[in-house]
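Progress narrative, Year 2. Work on Erythromycin esterase family protein from Alicyclobacillus dauci advanced from sequence curation to structure prediction during this period.
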Amino acid sequence: MNDSNVIAEIQASSMRLNGISDFDTIIDSIGSSKYVLLGEASHGTSEFYRLRAELSKRLILEHGFTFIAVEGDFPSCFALNRYVKGDKNTPSTAKQAMKIFQRWPTWMWANEEIASFLEWMKVENSPRGSNRQVGFYGIDMYSLWESMDEIVKHLERIQAPELEDVKKAFSCFEPYGRNAQTYGLSATYMSEHCEDEVVKALLELRSHRQHDPSHPESTMALDLNAMVTLNAERYYRAMFHPGPESWNVRDTHMVKALERIMAFHGDNAKCIVWEHNTHIGDARFTDMIDEGMVNVGQLLRERHGTEEVFPIGFGTHRGTVIAGSEWGAPMQVMPVPNAQPGSWEDLMHRAGDFNQLLLFKDRDWSLDDPLPHRAIGVVYEPLDERGNYVPTIMHRRYDAFVFVEETQALRPIELARVEV
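Result:
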């Protein structure tokens, strides 16, 4: 299919996006979906966060969605969950609560855009009964040590008899100095790992777990931290092996974590997921499938059906972004150059030099050829973008797509170093 045909089909099917009221078409199309997946083409773009927040507000207010689940660590995001639910033992502002985020890249969740949304959530939750308050949870699994800390704290609060056994099992990780890379290298090249100790400890926890009456969500939090501990250990062991295993461990974990939170909230629960397009857009309609990779969008569709899962992709033609030049490097405001010729973002731009909205679901689209679709990670090199494009059949990967012509970098908040 040549460029002119694609541009013509976009022009015939897209609508101009001027404001949040223009999302009515998407809101109506979501219908009875229980999983609404809101993507992003980068982890450092202000408009993606702000538009997801506005969409989420409408879904919460108009369709009774139960919680937000994000691509963030469970322990840190659970602190924000307690904040938006008015826990008296939390800081007085969202920005103060965000000091819990110390793991690079801190800007992903410690930013002005999220702070504003959390303050809205807290006000919205205030008059609601505890069983109707909207939650904010992290479903990622990088927090191996933090999740072990939270398990120990829970067992100490309830004076659990298995506390010392769990501490002993977790002590297997002490030689690695809370350094995941060191642990992964030792597990890979020296066959020194803590899998047996972790499995034994968590099986014991599952068979004897006790509720903490002072924390209504304590059992769910214990389960999630146990899942993180188990799967993060597996992830860090797989990280230094070639192939898709580490990626698949992570995305499978995020789906299981999401389903555990859904189960906690009951049969009528509905969730909004905020993650990168690479996670929420169905992997089967990208080149990921050739590498044996699965992702959240694919797994949710397979497990719950396309009628219950509604993924929305986001993209931009040009602008600025927050990212690092390498893993762990200081964050920078970087330019996002004009999209490469022939890419999806370039064709959207040529179809109309303005913000646009496309609804794919239940529409007769003929764009079955894969097109390059830009994906910017937390590590980015604007001068060499060739590896930042994923071949994608757009109308099968997503149910809708939000295109912002020119975007601006996310606004991180300043974080003082704290003990976590």
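The first helix runs from residue 3 to 13. The CA atoms of residues 34 and 268 lie 9 Å apart.
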